[in-house]
Structure formats: structure tokens, C-alpha cells
Amino acid sequence: MGKDVIVACDFSGKDEVMAFLDKFKGRKPYVKIGMELFYAEGPDIVREIKARGHKIFLDLKLHDIPNTVKKSMAVLSRLDVDMTNLHASGTKAMMEAAIEGLTRPDGTRPLLIAVTQLTSTSEERMKADLLINEPIDKVVMHYAKNAADSGLDGVVCSPLESEKVHSVCGKDFITVTPGVRFSDGDTGDQVRVMTPAQAKKIGSDYIVVGRPITAADDPVAAYERCINEFVG
Ligand code: C5P
Description:
Layout: E1 4-8, H1 14-22, E2 30-34, H2 35-41, H3 43-51, E3 56-62, H4 66-78, E4 83-87, H5 92-102, E5 111-115, H6 123-130, H7 136-149, E6 154-156, H8 162-169, E7 174-177, H9 196-201, E8 206-209, H10 211-214, H11 219-230
Parallel strand pairs: 1-2, 1-8, 2-3, 3-4, 4-5, 5-6, 6-7, 7-8
Helix pairs in contact: 2-3, 4-5, 7-8
Bound molecules: cytidine-5'-monophosphate.
């Protein structure tokens, strides 16, 4: 599995994201487009960034009835993204339908990654609001296993969970991990963080890095530092 650094381009509009990407000149980082940018600019923003030669992780976290997810995934697949995602809590039937929708007539498809429990959901809120009375670690691993059984390629998880996910779902099951910070940087609102080097050591396949790169004085240098620490 090729390790890579995915830059979370959490910008509110096209001008901002293009000005940011222009700084990279010949370099073409793997870009994550989230809901904010996608809903602001629509599918054209995906086509334009793709046309500049970037790989794209489209982070829209689908969750609906299987038929709707299947049809929506077919649309995303035609956008030629490299990776997209959904909520594992939509059930195995929804995940299997997603794979069907995503698969192109020639058999190829973007990577499909599941969100297990959002890291913003505490065990306490999961119990009180969702009536799930199991330890959160067990829930996360169970959802990861459901995703693997449904044919998905991996999960988004904390770097601290990467090792366990690999032991439960196999070493080829991809872990995509946000919550990455430099050893000498601000943690911001992320609580459980790891450096790129630590994430590499514990076996993350992709790290998702936003503000340590986007808000850096020199974003290109910060990106190169991530690549050097994580990919080597
Ligand atoms: O700026 P920062 O490095 O914290 O950005 C991390 C990115 O990863 C953001 O786009 C955030 O929405 C996303 N993310 C996360 N934690 C998750 C899932 C996604 O931080 N559990």
C-alpha cells in the first residue's frame, strides 16, 4: 500500500483553494475536498483540481438508504475521484450498495473508506444519545469489521487505532488518519494527536493533515516535512 500525505483543503471557496494549490508549483499533493468546499462550489471544483493533476479524496460521508447511496456513489465515481467515504453505521447493506454504485463498467472504482464513530462522539454521548451500550473501542472495531466484510477498502480512524484496525481487518485494510501534528506545533482542537513519524511507525497508510500545512507560514515546506517524516 503506497503511503501518502493527504492535505485537507478546508477552504470556503475556489479562489482560496486555488491560491493555496498555486503555491505548490510543480508539486501535486493528494487533496481532500470536504463538505464545505463541495457544497460551496459543486462538482466543478473536483473536476478542476483533478484536471490540475491532483489525486482527490472526496470526504462527503454518505449515509442514506442503500438505493440512494448506490446512485450517488455512481455519480461520484464518474467525477473520477481517487477515494471517497460513507458512514459504516448505514449498515452492511448500504456499504455493499455503495460498492456496486461506485464500480465503473470496466470494473475499476475509487477507494471506499468508512467512518466508524466520529471522533467528536464520546462514549458517554454514544450511550446517552445513540443508546449504544458497548465500549466505544469495541464499536469502532465492529464497524471496521463490517466495512471490511462489505468489501470496503479501509476506515478513517485515529492514528492510535491504526494498529488495532490492521490486526482485526488485515494489514491490507487501509487506515486513513487525521489528528496529525508536528512535535513542535499547535494541536488546535485535536485532542489525541500523533506526529507524522509516529503515524508511520504505527502503520497508518494515509495521514490527513489540514491546518499544520494550510495555516503554516510556508505551506510547501510544511508539506515537504510531512512527506519526509511519513513517507521518508
Ligand atoms: O486541520 P486538521 O489537521 O485538524 O484537519 C483534519 C481534517 O480531517 C479535517 O478536514 C477534519 O474534518 C478531518 N477529520 C478529523 N477527524 C476525523 C475525521 C475527519 O479531523 N475523525
